[in-house]
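Recap from last week: sequence in, structure out.
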Amino acid sequence: MNPKNQIQAVHQAFTDIRADYAAAQPSRFRRTRRNLGGNADAHYYSEAKFLEMREYVRDMDRNDAIIGQAIDRAVANQIQGGFTLEPQTGDAKLDADLWARWDDWANDPEQCDLAGEHTFYNMEWHATRAELLDGDIFANLTDGGQVEMIEAHRCRTPDNTKRNVVHGVLLSDTRRREEFWFTSKDIDPSVRLSRVGDIVPYPVRDAEGNRTVCQVYNPTRISQTRGVTALHAVFDICGQFEDLNFAKLVQAQMVSCIGGFIERTADFQLGEREEETQSDGTTATIEGLSPGQILRGRPGEKFTTVSANVPNSEYFPHVKLLLQMIGLNLGLPLVLVLMDASETNFSGWRAAVDQARLGFKCGQQQRKIRFHRPVYLWKLREWMRRDPALRAAATRDGINLFAHKWNSPKWPYIQPEIEAEADQKRKQYLLVSPSGLQAERGGDFDDVVAETVRDNGGAIVAAIAKAQEIQQATGEKSVTWRDILFLSKDTGGTGGAPAGIDPAIEAIKQRLDTAGVATRAGVFTPQKSDEEIVRAQLGFPAMSPEVAKAWEKDEGTRRPITLTPPPGSAPAPVGGAKPPVPAKEQPESDDE
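Predicted structure tokens:
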């Protein structure tokens, strides 16, 4: 053998025995996949196909029974009642002023929307929906202080450009977005964009580097420039679900019309006939039917009935599987897709919803970064340009005018009482820290403490002022702020009574509950001194003469009603009580 061939053979042998991933080896069971390799943008290189994919999914949204509603469920769970702004400048009055400005602007379509139709909440909703359905959407922050929402199909690349533009996004050498290229008007996606003059470039940032156009999208790779519909992986399944459902409806209609078949050797016309030419040139005969039609056969003919079991039992599990795959790509379990939890028990429903909420939180975080924060900072800079007082406030010591936080919508407890009690016990037994518990619920412990101190402090100050007002008006000096305002003693630490309960009262209640159990068990008998102690601890008045006389009548002890002997019986003595007199020795009543 030629030495060169020997070297190649040895090299091939070592290559064959090298430990590789099995997935890297060819297999006849594997689906053929094309267009492999490259960055994320390479996989939607053709703009015509990219636009066509978006138009297909928009048609599903318009016309299919499930797609539009499923997307609405995903959006509703993320947006709910909307995100809330919380300025954190370091000055309470300044925070309140900025919040009031934002609230006035965000809830007025004329101020907020360039088209004068949508509030900021509406924009939140449409931006989230467009991200899931279209892949992305754009918000142009205009010089006039209004937001112009631009749909994804208007961001396009002309055929004659040689610049680094990916479907309407001009990129620098470091992939930094420099411009978005939008058509000046809506153009049919199937029409080619032949000239650069057909588009209008929008700078992504102003001269100071501040965002002027936001792209709301959720890339799955670092090198992805444009957003892709969330339904891209189940495109065919979405269409097949509708086709399958339609076919079953047609089948049910046919079964409703046909009661059976008669086998005969000669032709027999059932109803009106039409001849129809098929696409291959052949002719088909279409024969009419009517519901409840009765066919009378001839002697010797065989009649076979048609089963009306439509849809069959296998249809429903298959449909659920398809819906689960569609919902999975939108972050929705089946119970949310169908808005029906009858297919599972409470634990299964709760586990599915808890997992879905993890995805909803990720979507909320994306929205804050790509939409809410840039819009607020842009609006704040516009206010500063127009208001000298706001510019002056920004220069004060300890003031950070741009500091703020967006509070995303939270979800209520599924079982409020049980879950709140469980949280309390977890803190009490040191299974979770207060800050850790807040993080689980999507909150921030430092923020909660600061807000609680602020709110409770303000309430106490107001209550003190009101108590003083009552004292001056009535002369009653015993009125305190605690008579007007009751705050929970539970500070969220490792123990304490439940929220809203005085710990001292709770301790007494627990002792009384224990005494009650012992009394009903027959191992403890309440005495007169017990009532005196309880009255003193609860701050109740001393026993009245009538109450003291009742104790004397009971000879200083009491038994629970459950242990009181029925008439004519002689139970064993209980606790410190005297045994009852046997029935035969009991004195007769005056009536007898």
